[in-house]
Design brief:
single chain; mainly alpha; 6 helices
Length: 123
């Protein structure tokens, strides 16, 4: 047990040193009021703000995902436009498209659908 009668305060009793002596051990650049204010400002911006670093990282990840999606859909749109131009200008392409997509046939034809062989046969 520590005898408090020999010491001036509880702080000196616990840490066995004077408060000013403890502050002198901290480097001067850390004790600087501008450094402390800047550090507090950085902590608020990095961790406590609604636009903190974690939210920014999540938004960048989402932006990359949306850009990939945009590129995919732009390529699909250009392919569909080319196909539409071919359908408008070429009757043979229109007939082929109707036969493949809508299973249309001529009056004197019969249509037989053959299912494709799957890799995973069912027993």
């Amino acid at each position: 047990m520590v005898n408090l009668s020999n010491h001036d305060s509880c702080f000196e009793a616990i840490f066995n040193t004077k408060p000013m002596k403890l502050l002198t051990r901290i480097p001067a650049w850390i004790r600087n009021k501008y450094f402390i204010a800047f550090a507090a400002f950085c902590v608020v911006l990095l961790f406590l703000d609604k636009n903190d670093i974690f939210a920014q990282l999540e938004r960048r990840r989402e932006l990359r995902k949306l850009e990939k999606s945009r590129d995919y859909y732009q390529s699909r749109i250009s392919a569909e436009r080319k196909e539409l131009e071919a359908l408008k200008n070429n009757p043979a392409t229109l007939e082929r498209y109707a036969r493949e997509k809508y299973l249309m046939k001529r009056d004197n034809e019969e249509l037989f659908l053959v299912p494709e062989k799957s890799d995973n046969p069912k027993n």
